[in-house]
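Schema walkthrough. Field components (list of strings):
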Amino acid sequence: MTQNLENKRLVECNSGRMALFLKSAIFTALFLSESVIARTLSLVSYENPPDLGSRQGYVLVKLDVDGTAPSIEFFKLYSNGSTYLESGKKTRLRKNNRYHISLKGKPSGYYLMAIPSGLYQITQINAPYFNLPYKLDTSSRRTWRFHVEAEKTNYIGSLFIGKQRKSDSIEVYLKNRIATDFNEIQASLGSLTELYPLVSGTGVQDVFFNSWQGPLEVEQ
Amino acid sequence: MKIVCQLIQLALLSFIVNVGSAVAMPAETYFKPVETMTAQISPDGKFVASVAQGDESQKLVIWNSVDGSKRTLIDLKALTPRDASIRFIRWIGPRYIVAQFMELKKGVKNLLDTKPAYRLLVLDVLGSKSLPPKVFEVKTSGWLVHALPDEPGYFLYAKSGIYSKVYKIDVSKLNLLNQKASKLVRKDGGQFTAQNEVASVKGFAARWFFDLSGQPESALYFDEGKLHLSRIADGISSTPIKSWTKEELEEKPSAGEKYGVLIPVSISPEDGAYFCLDTTAEKDRTVYQCNFSTGEESVVYRSDSYDIVDLIIDESTGALIGVKVVRDGKLEYQYIDESIQVNDGMTSLLETTVGASIDNTVKLYFSETHDQPGRYFIRKQGQKSDQLVASKFPHLDGRLESRQFHDWIQVEGIDIPYVLNMPKGNGPYPLIVMPHGGPLGIFDHQYFDYYTQFFVANKYAVLRVNYRGSSGYSAELEEAGIQQWGNLMLEDIYQATKVVGARKDIASSQICAAGVSYGGYAALMMAIKHQQLFRCAVSIAGVTDVNLYLNSPYTSEAQTKWLQENVGDTVKNYDLLKDISPVYLAQELSRPVFIIHGEKDEVVDIEHMHRMHMMLSKFNKDYEWKVYPDMAHGPADSEHHVAVFSSIIEFIEKNMK
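Field assembly_structure (string):
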């Protein structure tokens, strides 16, 4: 009997521990799943710039997207503050910094969002069309990176997702067009770029905009 | 005062007239659409069918070799309101000509691959000239695979599916175009039945190969995740010749291998051999002959610059006589010279027999020279003179006269060939140096070159240098171009220009560089690096920032890797590539430049032009720029050609003085 009681207590105790374990496991699982689920961000028209948080900069992108529900996903990269990854450096995604942006119904034009400074990798483009799901994995493509400097307007390029597609392919590009779009950006966002200067936000090395802005060298 | 004003007006008018007359061959006169795309002779030699291309639609034209008359059999504009083009034509006996055409239908909204519709029409050429021709139609999806020359009025037609089959079709049993099916009128005359089946394979057939009489010899087909080439015996696949897995088909050539997986596209007259294309090549510019039983592979033809999409085979011998290439988005026929298949000689006459009557008494041949665009002629046995049937550019026939010279110079231990075209006369002539695009695996040939002859017709000498990296000569020359974009390739162009510029018949103080794509890049670099020699430069769709080009959004991963190996690594060598980019050298420029770009360019993005424009503006340089909203990678249609080349001539004349 005593033994039975002891056993029962043990069972109860074990069940209590089990319940506690299960609770914590569920909590941990929820916490973990919370961390890997992408945070949803929004792009807003350049006419209504969002407020910048601490150590945040503006991402400026020109959109030319179409389709039923286009969206992109991106991660922050480990980059030690660099604006691009140097030769030999591996791409390491910060798993807890995963983002998702819906581009559905966005008319063509310039859009902004405020995000923390750093180097980012666009990892996936989604462009579903009826029963033809489409996901382009861009996680290994250098040209699908962008970087954000705090307190700056970081032009990351012109994102194009074609309206017309084939059954098994669709045209999707991130075009580095800072020179092409420069006059338009100045005309549309001149007041914003006075406060938060325009910089090239492409995630590969590109010194063009800095060189162009640099002083004239007077020949001796 | 009034008289003075009138005198001034008269003086101005005469100035305008003089300026206008300075252009010997205005671009409006020179640049017109290709009139004849291809031609085929009937088996009895009495007719030649040709496809005439206009800016708006295509026509199938019949030329009668007996009385020399011409007749339009079909005009696609009248046949369909949709965008349509003739993909190929072929004679089925002496009476019928087959035309397969593609039209763009409505399809599923925004789904591009549901839009093209292929239709095969069979036209009776023997009907009354005053009435429209009798037109039959094949409605079943598929394609014509053999014209059965020994059985007039019959042809072989392939249909692909889980089981792919070839049927023998009788033209007389087909329905007339747009005839509605009913109980009495069966689709295609009810001919797609087992009774008419001549061959079948289990799997989706991509190609069928026949002997000259039309007996099925082998088939290339997909089955169970593999691509198979199998011999056909008694109408069914029997002996497997070769199979490729999906991985093998996508496998890139390993180091030291010059090409990847070769896939047969046509049967060769040599026993057991096929004409093949490299499926893994970034650009399909080479035709190989491959024998899968012996493992022998050899190069039989290289296109100068455009992607090969199909081969042109002499139906009577099975010999390769040309290739179909895509140029400026349009299908173009390139014929191979009978005497020189690979560019080992330097004659400027290209002559190819396109076809012959069955009794071999009448031949249709294609001929072009450096200053005469291609023309089709009929040569009849026993007749001294040939008859002109059709021209690619009839408005230029006999109007272009120029001299052509070929020579070589040595640069850094390599023979660098060049082609120099000169107007007739003693000169001295101003010189336009026109480096080709590419730059790797492309070359300037010795036959008719559209842009060169335009400049020559306007009294300019034109130099085209086959700098290292160019194909068409030797593997050594081609391989020497690897990683030499802004270095020895440019040195070759400069050295050749120095040698040619020293000729007595060249005005050495009037040299300008002009080019498209890499040619545009090289032109800018000539004006930057060698300002003592070059007076100006014109860059059309030119690369101006090499790192930006290597990070192009339009290239696939495989293309990016190829560029990294052959041009440069933008991660490892960013600064080196920056140092050979005109954008960052703009400050050094002291000669006028003209930059031209199309907004729809998906090879060299328009960003290149805007970067150059911003830098030239910053440094207050002498330059002009022009953007064409509807132009892609260089001018393609007559409208763009006229606009672009008129402005180039104007710029060059202004800056060569």
